[in-house]
């Protein structure tokens, strides 16, 4: 499936650099004992930056919600219709929900256990996390 290539910016450069190494990282505020996703420059709760760090996580999670996409305005995705988009709740990071693809899972279910894998996007070679079912 052709993936759209994100262009990392200052705020998410570490996230995408880790993805290129096949690793998943999430921001964590030590002052608030709180995980943050999507990436931001400072903790949105305490406005702290010095205690707001990236942490590598294993990335196992459960499907919180999903949708099967049967039509799209994005030409590069049309060849792979229908495809599945999932919202995953990360087991290690309470409160964090990530949105991405779950390729080849026609029978996905809410509550299904998943783990990340990293797909190469064609336009830039940037790797992005997506999900696969745990058997
Ligand atoms: Zn904080």
Report on the structure:
With 135 residues, the chain is mainly beta. It has one domain (10-133). Helix content is 6%, strand content 39%. The protein contains one helix and eight strands; from the N terminus they run αββββββββ. The chain has one helix spanning 13-20, and strands at 24-29, 34-36, 52-57, 61-69, 83-90, 97-101, 113-120, 127-133. A five-stranded antiparallel β-sheet has the order 6-5-4-7-8. Strands 2-1-3 form a three-stranded antiparallel β-sheet. Strand 7 and strand 8 (127-133) form a beta hairpin. The protein is globular and about 45 Å long. Residues 29, 31-32, 34, 43, 45-46, 48 line the site of zinc ion (ZN).
What's the SSE blueprint?
Elements: H1 13-20, E1 24-29, E2 34-36, E3 52-57, E4 61-69, E5 83-90, E6 97-101, E7 113-120, E8 127-133
Antiparallel strand pairs: 1-2, 1-3, 4-5, 4-7, 5-6, 7-8
The structure holds zinc ion.
Radius of gyration: 15 Å
The total count of strands amounts to: 8
* Number of domain units: 1
Uncertain spans: none
Instruction: Based on Cα principal axes, name the global outline.
Output: globular
Distance between the termini: 22 Å
Count of discrete alpha- or pi-helical segments spanning 4 or more residues? 1
Mean pLDDT score: 92
Structural class, from secondary structure content?
Answer: mainly beta
Largest sheet: 5 strands, antiparallel
Beta content: 35-45%
Bound molecules: zinc ion
Give the topology string: H per helix, E per strand: HEEEEEEEE
Strand order of the largest sheet: 6-5-4-7-8
Helix content: under 10%
């Amino acid at each position: 499936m052709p993936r759209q290539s994100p262009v990392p910016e200052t705020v998410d450069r570490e996230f995408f650099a880790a993805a290129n190494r096949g690793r998943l990282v999430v921001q964590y505020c030590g002052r608030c004992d709180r995980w943050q996703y999507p990436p931001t420059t400072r903790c949105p709760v305490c406005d702290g930056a010095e205690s707001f760090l990236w942490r590598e996580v294993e990335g196992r999670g459960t499907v919180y919600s999903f949708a099967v996409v049967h039509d799209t305005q994005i030409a590069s995705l049309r060849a792979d219709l229908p495809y599945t988009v999932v919202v995953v709740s990360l087991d290690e990071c309470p409160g964090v929900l990530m949105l991405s693809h779950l390729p080849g899972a026609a029978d996905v279910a809410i509550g299904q256990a998943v783990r990340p894998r990293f797909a190469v996007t064609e336009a830039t070679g940037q790797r992005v996390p997506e999900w696969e079912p745990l058997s």
